[in-house]
Each structure stands twice: as structure tokens, then as C-alpha cells.
Write a structure and sequence with these properties.
Protein name: Heme degradation protein
Order of helices and strands: EEEEEEEHHHH
Oligomer: single chain
Largest sheet: 5 strands, antiparallel
Pfam families: DUF5606, DUF6852
Low-confidence stretches: 134-161
Radius of gyration: 25 Å
Number of helices: 4
Organism: Mucilaginibacter lappiensis
InterPro entries: BVU_3817-like_C_sf (IPR049281), BVU_3817_N_sf (IPR049282), DUF5606 (IPR041218), DUF6852 (IPR049280)
């Protein structure tokens, strides 16, 4: 999932896409149907990139992208306005290691609302460009290991030459 450039702005509902940057902040466009534009001043607004957001976990924090991936395969997703008990049950399905004391119902509602906004967008099903595909990376590693094994015996047989320093000339 490619969430690069998607941000949440403090004090503003919904999600925003970063279009451009100027000296004072960012030009943002809402992801809803209205496509409203906003200039977020960095001195007054706080921006949080969705690809960097984590949820409190019992042992380690859980990446929001991992929760979204689990939500894709979930049987049914409750409405963001459902009661806290239903939301908590759902969150135990998609993020079983979340910390019950630190993750509030309002946080769960926000995550579900964000998912509802993102799920129909094409970028939600794209691969993240910052993460290399696992299938393509594995053969490259094996090939480099094979090359190193062939090159190693040849370098071990060749004697190593020591570089001699020329004596410094006095002026």
C-alpha cells in the first residue's frame, strides 16, 4: 500500500494529500469528494504522515499500514460510529497486540474512518515504492553470494602487495 504523501492535519477532519511545498508549509488537497485545497502553515499546523503513524502495542508499536492490511482481509468492518465494545472487538481481530489502556475508542474510530476514505483509492492497492518486493530481492541476494564464493578463492591465492611510502623530501 502506497501512503506516501498522505497526511493527517491536526484540527482538520479527514485525510489530505500533499501537492506541493512552499517556504511556509504545504499545499494540501482533501481526499474526499470536495477536493478542497488547504495551505498548512508549519508553524501552526501539525502534520502526521500516515506511513509513519503507529498504534500503541503491548510489546512494540504497531504500524498503521499493518493494521490497514489486516483490515483488508477482515470479514466485516464496523461503522466508525459504532459503540466502543464493537470497535474494541474488531481491533482485537486486526491488531491483537494493541494496548487496551492507551488506544481509545476515538483512536479506533479515526483509524476506521481513514480506512473507509482510503480503501477505494487506487494508491491503497499500489505497492509502496520505498519497500523492495520480497520476490525480486531474494534472487539478487543469492546471485551475489554465488559471485562472492567464486571470487574468494582467486583473491586468497594471489599474494597481497604492501604499498611502500616514499620518503618525504626536505625542501
Amino acid at each position: 500500500m502506497n501512503l506516501q504523501g498522505i497526511v493527517a492535519v491536526s484540527g482538520k477532519p479527514g485525510l489530505w494529500k500533499a501537492l506541493a511545498q512552499n517556504k511556509n508549509g504545504y499545499v494540501l488537497e482533501s481526499l474526499d469528494a470536495l477536493k478542497t485545497k488547504l495551505v498548512a502553515n508549519l508553524s501552526t499546523a501539525k502534520l502526521a504522515a500516515l506511513s509513519e503513524i503507529t498504534i500503541f502495542g503491548v510489546d512494540d508499536d504497531i504500524k498503521l499500514t499493518d493494521v490497514f492490511e489486516q483490515m483488508k482481509s477482515a470479514a466485516s468492518i464496523p461503522d466508525a460510529k459504532a459503540d466502543g465494545k464493537k470497535l474494541r472487538e474488531f481491533f482485537f481481530e486486526v491488531a491483537p497486540d494493541h494496548d487496551e489502556e492507551k488506544v481509545y475508542a476515538s483512536d479506533m474510530k479515526k483509524v476506521i474512518a481513514w480506512y473507509q476514505l482510503l480503501k477505494d483509492l487506487p494508491l491503497f492497492n499500489e505497492l509502496d515504492p520505498t519497500v523492495a518486493p520480497v520476490e525480486a530481492a531474494a534472487p539478487a541476494v543469492e546471485a551475489s553470494v554465488a559471485v562472492e564464493e567464486v571470487a574468494e578463492p582467486a583473491s586468497a591465492a594471489a599474494p597481497k602487495a604492501k604499498a611502500k611510502k616514499a620518503p618525504a623530501k626536505k625542501a
